[in-house]
Design brief:
Layout (H helix, E strand, L loop, with lengths): L13 H8 L1 H31 L11 H8 L16 H17 L5 H22 L12 H9 L2 H10 L15 H14 L2
Helix pairs in contact: 4-5, 5-8, 7-8
């Protein structure tokens, strides 16, 4: 015969009966289970830290001086290659023949001036062009007569002083402390001659 009440089972589940009759017991059981889980995780973590921390790192290659220096060194470094072409190739290509031709055609008495402009161009290309070719941080651009005019009016000594000792965002000697004072002055002369 078919069961007239298919959803009613004559057998009672003791867990369901316990939940229905004792909800406080269920809550306590859940709390005890959670606390036991947390304590287990804490003990496992302490064990792992104890085992890992007690290892001797004395002969570990990762702790060698070279490995530590490699980890602590900067990710990148700024290096300016004095032999690299300047950012404004068109300006340099146009200026190079113009500077070389007068030096070659000039009489022997004018040779020191031609040599100075060559040294000035070389210093400009290797150090000064980083800012003065593009006008970075307010630097007057190479060949910009309007930007250079008020500076030229202050006189060459004032320009030399600014270039040698720094001014505003420009560090002393354009950030290249190894430059000789004469090389810096030659670069100033080179930039001034292009802006007159």
């Amino acid at each position: 015969m078919a069961d007239p009440h298919p959803h009613h089972h004559p057998h009672h589940d003791p867990i369901e009966d316990n939940i229905d009759t004792h909800p406080a017991k269920l809550a306590i059981s859940v709390v005890v289970g959670v606390v036991a889980l947390v304590i287990g995780i804490i003990l496992l973590t302490q064990f792992a830290v104890g085992v890992y921390g007690s290892r001797s790192r004395k002969d570990d290659p990762a702790m060698s001086d070279a490995a530590v220096k490699a980890r602590l060194s900067p990710v990148a470094q700024v290096v300016v290659d004095p032999n690299a072409p300047a950012a404004t190739a068109a300006t340099n290509v146009a200026a190079a023949p113009a500077a070389a031709a007068p030096a070659a055609a000039a009489p022997a008495a004018a040779a020191p001036a031609g040599a100075a402009s060559g040294a000035g161009k070389s210093t400009f290309d290797s150090t000064c062009s980083v800012c003065h070719a593009t006008g970075v941080a307010g630097a007057p651009k190479f060949g910009d007569k309007a930007a250079w005019a008020p500076r030229i009016k202050t006189g060459k000594e004032a320009l030399y002083n600014s270039a040698l000792h720094g001014k505003n965002a420009m560090p002393p000697k354009g950030g290249n402390a190894s430059l000789a004072d004469d090389a810096v002055k030659a670069a100033v002369d080179y930039m001034v001659s292009a802006a007159q």
